[in-house]
Amino acid sequence: MRTKDRVKSQDQHILNLAEIVGGSRSILYQKEDLLAYDCDGFTIHKHLPKAVVFPKNTQEVAEIVKYCSENNLPFLARGAGTGLSGGAIPLNGEIIISMVRMKKLISVDLENRRAVVEPGFVNLKLTNSISDKGYYYAPDPSSQYCCTIGGNVAENAGGAHCLKYGVTTNHILGLEVVMPNGEIVEIGKDGIPDAPGYDLLGLITGSEGTLGIVTKITVRVLKNPEGKQTVLAYFDRVEDGSQAVSDIISAGIVPAALEMMDKTAIEGVEAAAFPVGHPKDIEAVLLIEVDGIAAGIGEQIDQILEVCRKRNVREVRAAGSEEERARWWANRKTGFGAMGAISPDYLVQDGVIPRSKLPEVLSRISQISGESGLRIANIFHAGDGNLHPLVLFDARIPGESEKALEAGSQCLKVCADVGGTITGEHGVGIEKREEMRFVFTEEEIAAQTEIREVFNPHNLLNAGKLFPSPSRCAEVKKEMKAQAIS
Amino acid sequence: MSVRELDLKQEPPCTSGLGNYLWSDPPDEKKWADCVHCGMCLESCPTYEQTGQEQHSPRGRVHLIKSVAEGKLQVNEQFMDPVFQCLDCRACTTACPADVDVGGLIEEARGQIRQAMPLTGIKGAISKFFLHDLFPHQNRLNTLGGLMKFYQKSGMQKAVRKTKVINIMPQHLVDMESIMPEVKEPVKKKYKDVKVIKAKGETKKEVAMLTGCVMDVMFSDINESTINVLTRNGNDVVIPQSQTCCGALHVHAGDRDMGRKLAKQNMEAFKDFDKVIVNAAGCGCMMKEYAELFKEDPEMHAKAEEFSEKVEDISKFLHDTGYEKPKAEMNTRITYHDACHLAHGQGIRQQPRDILLDIPGVDMVHMPNSDRCCGSAGIYNITNPEMANAVLESKMENVPDDVEMISMGNPGCMLQMAMGVQKYGRNQKIVHTIQLLDWAYQKEDRVKEEKE
Question: Is CB count within 10 Å lower at the N or C end of chain A?
Answer without folding.
Answer: C
